[in-house]
Design a protein that fits this description.
Elements lengths: L6 E7 L2 E7 L1 H8 L6 H27 L4 H7 L3 E4 L7 E5 L5 E2 L5 E2 L8 H4 L6 E2 L8 E2 L10 E4 L5 E6 L27 E3 L1 E2 L2 H34 L3
Antiparallel strand pairs: 1-2, 2-4, 3-4, 5-12, 6-7, 7-8, 9-10, 10-11
Amino acid sequence: MSGVNTSVKMVLEGRNVEVYIEGLDTVEQALGDMKGKTPAAIKVAINSTARETRKRMITAAKAKYAVNAKGQSHLKDLKQTKKATNRSLNAQLFISKMRNDLAYFQHSPTTVYSGREVFEKAPVWVKAKVLKISNMTALTGSGNLSKGFLAKFQNGHIGMVQRVIGSKSSNTTTASGKKRWTNRSGNVEKLQTMGAPSASAMHTKAWYEVKEEMEEYLMVKLAQRVDQILEKAGQ
């Protein structure tokens, strides 16, 4: 394998993972008479690395966080928003910024209870966890927020919510058109989503876990591409 003596850069800037290479002259030296192929060689290595980085970041996040199927779909919101070209030798992954609903993580039960079912079938507490290594925790609520429970909204979304105790909401019916629960004052209380780490936060944690191995991956891919060019040219 060619000894390409250059510097690879993979950095997290805000919500973007930037992939690029410093020291193009060293790649040119490795290619010799084929130095005109330098941008093409670097482009291929960078784009391959960006694709693989995305896969490994998602895999690392799945391994760390107790996301369910819905949560896993949001982890895939990590997108490659820029590909390297011969004129622009860098690629970019964009970490989506969003607030995750706790319903996207492991929780029990997973059934939405309403009406008399709340009293007849629902457990005292819904339990959930964010990290796979953690134990399930009862969502008991605190302060002016009620215990957590699942609710189905008119758009079909099932979310983990809490009632804001003592508040008053103008939304008095459920997604199916039934009258919502009222407090002793006869008011329907507002609902607040129970949040968990955003996809942005999870991807950021995953990035630091894969950064070193992906920089090594980029160096290997660059050397392999240089070798392929030289071999094709019979050098």
